[in-house]
Amino acid sequence: MKMVKISIFLLLLITSNTIHAKLNVFACEPEWAALMKELTGAHGKVFSATTAFQDPHRIEARPSLIAKMRRADIVVCSGSELEVGWLPLLLRSSGNRKVQINQPGYIEASQLVERLGIPQTIDRSMGDVHAAGNPHVHLDPRRMLKIAEIIGQRLKKIDPDNATHYQSQTRDFLARLQEKIKHWQSLATPLKDTKAVVHHKDWKYLFDWLGIKEVATLEPKPGVPPSPGHLATLKRQMKTDPADFILRAAYQDDNASKWLEKQTGIKAIELPFTVGGSDKATDLFTLMDDTINRLLAALKK
Amino acid sequence: MRKPLILATTIIGLTFQQNYVLADVGKISGNEFNPAISLILDGRYSSYDNDYDLPGFQAGGEAGLPDKGFSLGHNELTVSANIDDKLFGYFNAAMAMEGGETIFELEEVFFETLGLGEGATIKAGRFYSGLGYLNSIHDHAHDFTDVPLVYAGMVGSHLIDTGIQARWLAPTDIFLELGVEALSGASFPGGENKDNNKGQTIFAKLGGDINVSSSWLAGISRYSSKFDVREAGVHAHGGVSTVDNELLDGEVDITAVDFVYKWAPNGNTSKRYLKLQFEYFMRNEKGEAEFAEAGEQAAADYDGEQKGYYIQAVYQWQPRWRVGVRYDQLEANNKIASYDGDVDGNTTVLGQDEFLEESDLESDHDPKRISYMIDYSPSEFSLFRLQINNDDSNPTSDKQVYLQYIMSLGSHGAHKF
C-alpha cells in the first residue's frame, strides 16, 4: 500500500509540474546561461551547470544535474566534445525526450559556427584534443552574433506561443552586441599583434578576433597539467622571444603562470574567461569589457 | 510475468507515437557513425599468504583473490553507440586469464531507451543491477583494487543479471530516482530456477548539492530471488571441482543502504577533492544445504542472517595523486537444523562441525579488513595504484599487497557520480 501512496503522490508531482509557464533552460557553461537570459528574458528560467571556477572538461554527472536535465526544455552547451565526460550521461539518465541530441531542444553552440583548431590527425599522445575543433567559441562576439541568431530562431520553434517575445529579445540583443563590437574593436587596436602565453587553448577565438598571437601554452599537451620540464623550456623560449602576457582563466591553477612571471618578468594575468569569472564580468557585455581592459592594463605596464 | 509484457507494450507504444523532428544543425559528438570503442587494460602484482576464505559466506560469482604474483585483471572491451534516435546500445566484455586459460565474460550487454519522456528509462539485456552504489560501477572506476567484503561475500563482487530494468526520475529539483528490475535470478546470490525469472530488485536514490563545493547521493535498495539450486565454491573459471557445495530450494534477499558524499573546492575537482562512501548490506537466505566430497555427503536446513558494511574515504591532495582508506566488516549469524551427516547411508559420516566449516556456513568469526591505497594518474587515461590490506577476513590474519595498473584506450565514456 505504501508504494501505491508514494506513486500517487509522485504522479501528482508530475502533473503539477507540467503547468509551468517559464521555459526551463539548461546551460552547460555560464556564457550560454548569460546568452539564454538575454534571449529568453522574462520567459526563461535559466540554470548553469557549471561556474566560472570549474573546469568544463572535468565535471561529474552529479545527481542535481540529472534532476535539472530531467526538466529542461532546451539545453545549450559548447559542444564539440567539451562536455563528452558528463553531458551524454546526463542526457541518457534524464528520460527527457525534448533535449536529446536529435531534438530542437539540444544545441551545441560551437557547431553553429566555423571552428578553429580542427586537428589533422588525432592521437592520445597529443593530449585531450577535440576532433571537432576548439569548442571555446564564446569569446569571439562575431561568432556570438551568429549563435544568438540561430538560437533565437530555435526558441520560436520550441515555444511558438511566445515567438514574438523571443524575436524581440533576440533583435534587441543582436543590436546591442553589434554596437558593442565596434566599440571593442577600436578599444582593442593596441592588442593587435601582441604575443601571449596561455595556460590552455581557451583563447583561440578571442585571439582570432583581436589579432593576438598565441606563442606557447603552459600545458605541455592539452589537458595535461604544466610540468617543471616544460616550464623550463618556456622560460628559455621567453628569454629569446618574450611574449607580452601570460594568460590563465579564473578556473585554472595559478602556480605555473605565476612561476613563469617571476622567472621572466612577463606579466601574468587572470582573465574571467566566462561570466562570473571576475566581479565585473556579470553578463556577456561586461565579460568582454573586463577581458579587454585587463589585457590593455597589462600592456601599459 | 505479465508485468514486463505490459511494460514492454507501453514502451513500444510510447516510442512510436512520438514524431521526431531532426534538428537542422548540431550533430552527435564522440563518434560519427561508428560506435565508441573503449578498451581497459588492467594488471596487477599480488602478494598474500592465505587463500580466499570468508567464514559464514558461501563463495559465488567472482569472489576470490587474484593469482599470486603477476596476473591480469579484467581487461574490458566496451562498444557503445546510439542505435537510432530512441535507443542506446552498450556492450562490455571482460577478458581475464585464470589458471593459464583466457576467459571471456559478458559483463554488460544491453539497450536502453533515450528520452522516453516523463523521466522514464527502460533498459533490457544483461546489466549491473541497481542494488547498492558500487554495484553498477565497473571495476576500473573503483577506488580500490579489490571490492569491499560485503560485495565479495554477498553478491560475488557484482550483482550482474539478465532481465529488464525500468527507472523513473521525479521532476523535482532534488534528484529522486525510483527503479525496478525483473531478472533471471540465476546469478549469485540467486541460483538456477526453472522459469529463469525469479530475481527482483527495487531501488530508490535521492541526491543533490549542499553547496557549490559538495554533493551527495543516498540510496536504498532490495534484491530477492528464489532458486532450485545454487552452487557455491571459490571462483574458479573452468577449474575442476571435486567438491559439491549446494543450496537447494532456497531463497535470498538483500537490503542495502548506501551514501556517497563528494567535496571539491568550488566544485573544481582538477586540483583537490574528497569522496566519502558508505554502504550497509543485510542478507537473509535459506534453503537445504548439501555438501558432498569423496564419499561423504551431508545435508541440513540452513537459515542465514548476515550483515556488513564498509566505509571509505579517498582524497586527491594534488593533481594526479590520491590516497584512500577503507574499513570492512561482516557478521554472519547462520543456523542449521535437521542435520544429517550421512545422506547416502555410507559408512563414512561427516561431523556437523566439519560440515559447517567445509560448506562455509560456519559463522564463528566476524570478517574484518582495513585497506590503504595510494594512486598516481599520469593522465586521465592511466593509473598506477599501490594497496595494502590488513586482512582479518578469516581467523588467520594476513597482509595483502597489490600493485595495479589501469589503462584506458580509445573513447572513454562518462563515469557515473
Helix content of chain B: under 10%
Task: Please compute the radius of gyration of chain A using only Cα atoms.
Answer: 21 Å
Give the CATH topology of the largest domain in chain A: Rossmann fold
Mean pLDDT rating of chain B: 89
How would you sum up the global shape of chain B? globular
How would you spell out the order of helices and strands of chain A?
HEHEHEHEHHEHEHEHEH
Under the CATH scheme, which class of the largest domain in chain A? Alpha Beta
Indicate how many domains the architecture of chain A comprises. Answer: 2
As laid out across the biggest beta sheet of chain A, the strand order is 2-1-3-4
Which sequence of strands runs across the widest sheet of chain B?
1-3-4-5-6-7-8-9-10-11-12-13-14-15-16-17
Q: How many DSSP H or I helices of chain B?
A: 3
* CATH second-level architecture of the largest domain in chain A: 3-Layer(aba) Sandwich
Q: Helix count of chain A, per DSSP?
A: 10
Question: Oligomerization state of this entry?
Answer: heterodimer
Short note summarizing the structure:
By secondary structure, chain A is of the alpha/beta class.
Describe the structure.
The complex is a heterodimer of chains A (about 300) and B (about 425). With about 300 residues, chain A is an alpha/beta fold. In chain A, about 45% of the residues lie in helices and about 10% in strands. Chain A folds into 2 domains: about 20-185, Rossmann fold (3-Layer(aba) Sandwich); about 190-300, Nitrogenase molybdenum iron protein domain (Rossmann fold). Chain A is built from 10 helices and 8 strands. Chain A has a 4-stranded parallel β-sheet, with helices on one face. In chain A, strands 6-5-7-8 form a 4-stranded parallel β-sheet. Mean pLDDT of chain A is about 90; it is low at about 15-20. Chain B is mainly beta. Chain B has a single domain, classed as Porin. Chain B has a 16-stranded antiparallel barrel. In chain B, β3 (about 75-80) and β4 (about 85-100) form a beta hairpin. Chain B starts with a helix and ends in a 7-residue tail after the last strand. The model of chain B is unreliable at about 10-30 and about 235-240 (pLDDT under 50). Chains A and B meet through α1, α3, α4 and β4 of A and β7, β8, β9 and β10 of B.
